[in-house]
């Protein structure tokens, strides 16, 4: 019998504040381009006051992945902490409206921290520079992990950004133990080179001992294995992880499993906003895997979904992904 969930994601529950900006604006406001920087509430308020018109949408890396899976009709759930406030209500409503189960206990309204938000500055080249105030999502605890839900997951999907936070590693360990103990598998996305640098030892232990499927991009996998040689990094990852999936921007994606390697070309499109490209790639890939498609086809699905999401502002699909899969002949 199939389990209740194909994929359960665990990540930082955020509301994204999307705005366009120039490279000069980034320099003037000490924003590092194309990476995620952690900021405090004062810095978030300051940056928000400096940006132009902005669009607020529910986000968070793993939440975007789960929203994509739910949109494809997958049986999916999400774990991430928000506050009992207006932004928290928006986040929960948006995710449930996609069809995902979301039952993480809310932080009380009198909690000192706010619902997390990420100010995403998109430059004309489509690159996104993320300024993240974690807020209450930083305080996801082991008690927030429903072990029965984890045991009912064919896969869990862990967001690398979630390694930040005082009880994050313990929460992940609880989820991994419950999932694997019931025969499920573990997937992880590295998320960001700076995140790897902050938690290299924890990432290394997780990859070596618990991860069945790794998602990364070129910069992340080079950082993880501390080399400038892309092929060497891929080989090092494949030596300790069953399946490695690495995206490489316009060069597509590489998939390694069982001594074999596939290259899947990117789907050409005009890049409007790169936010969510890796998130939706992972979502489509995982959905395909859960539905029984082969790895190369899953990679093609990922590239199609990633291409769709970078063609517009925001990290959630605006087109029926299944229809796109049919157009491209993958289903």
| Mean pLDDT across every amino acid position | 95
> What is the helical fraction, as a range of percent?
25-40%
Alpha-carbon distance between the two ends? 24 Å
Residue ranges: pLDDT <50 for 5 or more in a row?
none
Strand order of the largest sheet: 6-5-1-9-10-11-12-13-14
Helix count from the secondary structure assignment: 13
Q: Round the Cα radius of gyration to an integer and report it.
A: 18 Å
Q: Count of DSSP E strands?
A: 14
Give the amount of beta strand, in percent. 15-25%
SSE string, helices as H and strands as E: EEHEHEHEHEEEHEHEHHEHHEEEHHH
Task: Look at the helices and sheets and give the structural class.
Answer: alpha/beta
Outline type: globular
What's the story with the biggest beta sheet?
9 strands, mixed
Topology:
Layout (H helix, E strand, L loop, with lengths): L4 E6 L3 E7 L2 H6 L7 E3 L2 H10 L4 E5 L1 H11 L4 E4 L6 H12 L3 E2 L14 E6 L5 E6 L13 H5 L1 E7 L8 H14 L3 E5 L3 H6 L1 H10 L3 E5 H7 L5 H9 L4 E5 L5 E5 L2 E5 L12 H14 L4 H15 L11 H7 L4
Parallel strand pairs: 1-5, 1-9, 2-7, 3-8, 5-6, 9-10, 10-11, 11-12
Antiparallel strand pairs: 2-4, 7-8, 12-13, 13-14
Helix pairs in contact: 3-11, 9-10, 11-12
